[in-house]
């Protein structure tokens, strides 16, 4: 019969192999951050440039499926919950998007 320590080790290994352990840890960090975030202290206003930079970072994080990291960025930076339109971003940054870039 397996010991508790052996069962814990197998469970941890299984969660790591499935990629779930990292997601669980990231989710816990995001929830702890949200619980500790002091809403009474006002944030400085978000400049237009920082709004665009944060949106590019969020797009990168979401593209790579770092959804909990993206949620912490959104909460901490004051970025709007709804992502900016990609065409708006391209226009603001003076970027011409070709067919291969649209899939990214």
Automatic annotation (TrEMBL):
This is Centrosomal protein 20. Keywords: Cell projection, Cilium biogenesis/degradation, Cytoplasm, Cytoskeleton. InterPro entries: FOP_dimerisation-dom_N, LisH. GO terms for cellular component: centriolar satellite; ciliary basal body; motile cilium. Involved in the biogenesis of cilia. Required for the recruitment of PLK1 to centrosomes and S phase progression. Belongs to the CEP43 family. Residues 43-103 form the FGFR1 oncogene partner (FOP) N-terminal dimerisation domain. The gene is FOPNL.
């Amino acid at each position: 019969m397996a010991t508790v320590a052996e069962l814990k080790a197998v469970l941890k290994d299984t969660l790591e192999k499935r990629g779930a352990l990292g997601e669980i840890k990231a989710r816990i960090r995001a929830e702890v951050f949200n619980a500790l975030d002091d809403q009474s202290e006002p944030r400085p206003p978000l400049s237009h440039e920082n709004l665009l930079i944060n949106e590019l970072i969020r797009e990168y994080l979401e593209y790579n499926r770092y959804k909990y990291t993206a949620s912490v960025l959104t909460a901490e930076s004051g970025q709007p919950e709804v992502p900016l339109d990609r065409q708006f971003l391209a226009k603001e940054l003076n970027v011409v998007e070709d067919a291969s870039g649209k899939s990214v």
